[in-house]
Amino acid sequence: MNQAIVAPIDRLSALLERFRVRAHLFHNGPLCGVTSFVAEPGRGFLHVLRCGDMVVTHRRHAGPPRRLEVREPSLLFYPRPLAHEFHNAPSEDADFTCASVHFDGGGSHPLVRALPPLVWLPLHQVEGLEQSLALLFAEAERVRCGHRLLADRLFEVVLLQLLRWLLDHPSQGGISTGLLAGLADPGLARALTALHEQPGEPWTLESMARRAGLSRSAFAVRFKSVVGEPPAAYLSNWRMTIAQAQLRTGHSVKSVADELGYANASALSRVFTQRVGVSPRAWLEQATSA
Q1: Alpha carbon 209 to its chain's center
Q2: How does DSSP assign the chain, residue by residue?
Q3: Is 42 exposed, middle or buried (0-12, 13-18, 19+ CB in 10 A)?
Q4: Per residue in 71-105, pLDDT tens?
Q5: Shortest CA distance to 168 belongs to which of 147, 189, 196?
Q6: pLDDT tens for residues 14-40?
Q7: What are residue 274's phi and psi, to 5 degrees?
Q8: Which residue in 87, 150, 204, 216 is a FRET match for 30, CA 20 to 30 A apart?
Q9: What's the pTM value of the predicted model, to 2 decimals?
Q10: CA gap 193, 37 in Å, rounded
């Protein structure tokens, strides 16, 4: 019997096109002794340990282990502000390439909310990373026209490859529930990607379940179990996340309501107030002052 061929889908582009991620190279070379990385709002870190070994420490109750021993070339990705320290023996320098990572919307970025506080992976585990890192290291080491800009873009490529790996290996990346767990599920990924790409469509539980290839009841149970909230709640929260991003960049409530499928500005304002706790105008004033 012939089996239907399921076409692959792009699970990340709709997210990253709406909520961008930027990287900025700030260090290339050895680190000796103790190096501290301070937590600042809206900033994460992506470190590449090229050679050597080190001990990484975190504050108690910060989320990651208090002490990590890294003994091979590795990626260390901190998506959220989190203070950490590298301890390297002065006589055995470890070589690093490091970038700060900035997510649009800071802590409200969907991927920031979905990722664990630290992703630590040996470089050899991430398929296809060698070529990107070779280009990154070459740009970081030589001063040529535009080398810093190109290094920043290559860091973003490395981050995208890391996110791909996490979608294919969620349990190894410490992901059990949430958005990334949903995108790692073949059926749920089709529904979630459709919601991300077409947030203004008149979605129902039945139409979402149809995208996932499941019955309504099976879809509702599976979605809640894997993503951590019911489908309707996820859709509403996704729309509110888009609304906040659009309002922050100067769009009117009416234009946002039209894009997200609400009958009018008043309908969006009602849902926004229910979900966020304040009206769109009050939220924008708070966000602007902050």
Answers
A1: 25
A2: -PPPPPPP--SSHHHHHHS-EEEEEEEEEEE-EEEEE---TTEEEEEEEEES-EEEEE-TTSSS-SEEEE-SSEEEEE-S---EEEEE-TTSPEEEEEEEEEETTGGGSHHHHHS-S-EEEEGGGSTTHHHHHHHHHHHHHS--TTHHHHHHHHHHHHHHHHHHHHHH-TTTTT--SSHHHHHHSHHHHHHHHHHHH-TTS---HHHHHHHHTS-HHHHHHHHHHHHSS-HHHHHHHHHHHHHHHHHHTT--HHHHHHHHT-SSHHHHHHHHHHHHSS-HHHHHHHHHH-
A3: middle
A4: 999 999 999 999 999 998 766 677 899 999 999 88
A5: 189
A6: 999 999 999 999 988 888 788 999 999
A7: -65, -45
A8: 150
A9: 0.88
A10: 35
Q: How far is CA 65 from the centre of its chain?
A: 21
* The pLDDT of residue 6: 60
Strands, sheet with 21-31, edge to edge from the N-terminal-most edge strand? 21-31, 94-103, 43-51, 74-78, 119-122
DSSP string, 46-107: EEEEEES-EEEEE-TTSSS-SEEEE-SSEEEEE-S---EEEEE-TTSPEEEEEEEEEETTGG
Beta partners for residue 35, in sequence order: 86
Q: Which two tokens stand for residue 214?
A: 């499941």
Average pLDDT in the 206-214 region? 96
pLDDT one-digit tens code per residue, 169-195: 998 888 989 999 999 999 999 999 999
CB 188 within 8 A of CB 223: yes
Q: How many CB atoms lie within 10 A of CB 61?
A: 6
Instruction: Name the amino acid, one letter, at 2.
Output: N
